[in-house]
Amino acid sequence: MKDPSSSKSDCTSTSHSSQSQLPREADEVALATNTASSAPLDQSIKRKSVVRYPILDILLAKNDPKEADRAGMPSDSVRLSQWKELRRKALPGQNPTDLVLVYAPTGLGGIEITARDYNRLEPGEFFNDTLVEFGTMRAFHKMQETNPTLAEQVHLFSSFFYSKLRSPLPSEGYQSVRKWTSKFNLFDKRYIIIPVNEDFHWYLCIIYNPKGALPPQMPPPRPASVITKPVMGQNQTKTIEVVDLDTDGEMDIETATVTNSPNACTLFVLDSFSRVSTNALRKVLVTYLLNEAIDKKLVGSEWDDHELEKWFQDHVVPEVAEVPRQQNFCDCGVYLVHFAEIFLSNPEKAIGYMMERGQSNSADESIWNKSGLKMQRITMKEEIDRLAVEWKAAR
Fold this sequence. Notes:
Blueprint: H1 16-19, H2 25-35, H3 43-51, H4 54-63, H5 65-70, H6 80-90, E1 99-103, E2 111-114, H7 115-119, H8 129-146, H9 148-151, E3 154-156, H10 161-165, H11 170-177, E4 191-198, E5 201-208, E6 226-228, E7 237-245, E8 251-259, E9 265-270, H12 278-295, H13 305-315, E10 316-320, H14 332-345, H15 347-357, H16 365-368, H17 370-373, H18 376-394
Parallel strand pairs: 3-4, 6-8, 9-10
Antiparallel strand pairs: 1-2, 4-5, 5-9, 7-8
Helix pairs in contact: 3-4, 8-14, 11-12, 12-13, 14-15
């Protein structure tokens, strides 16, 4: 599988080119040792540590308990010596690339979790693609075990799916993932789950009822710009701003009247940091659904290209879900996995909640289990420990 060192991490403001300039772990320990007994850290170091240097969060926590809470650390782990002990226990082997577990629930391929990946489950560490893949795939596998019929209505894409789609040329982006759906019709699924890493930030996308975006075989006369937006058990009309794709490919913002319908295709964005541009995201995924429909010959040949673009644009409705917000800069991957677990445990309940609540100002504890977020890292660690024992025994 991929080199873990190249895995995506979340919620850091640095670019790939600057990652090589960050201090190595040994340098971080030395820096921490030299400053552990000093006065409260300089504010410039404090600002950098939240984003770049998780180990410094330990020192910040020693001087300011509020920072320990922001970093998601329990109160008994704020001392450097205790952090070192946690670090030692988190690495089962001497080599960070040692395999801890190969998770292959279907028997084909597998997710390779190394000691370096496992260490990212510690408080203050950023999730990479390996942990996101494991967390989401494990939740989906549990659904397959408990409700295989419902699981047939779900498709879970890899965390690399969206990054491949974001090619400068949309046709090239689609070609890179075209064969991923060669054995099934994506539009027959009711729920499409897409983990997204964009600008080093993780969030979750769910496409509900993709079949609702398909046009009839014959193009109708062009009506006024009307978009159907599903709200369970309601039949209402409201006005929203939507993104339009011009003939030159540029995006415009226009006002459209939205009629609620349970048969529409809805793109839900579950972002714990409230920083996602739904316009750009929607453009990429609308283009993907359009290309997928054309490639699988689900669109009549009488459609004009521009009219077909407009149809898909008007029938894929963006909806920013009201979800719990992270309180630090390192937990967006944790939140993504948690949202996926909650959704897959009861998709219809989650969809109904997200549609009805809309832009409410509070995320309901009864649906999102916010208290469970604090245990997410520990729960995943215990799950990997248990599965690792079984995997090693079967080797």
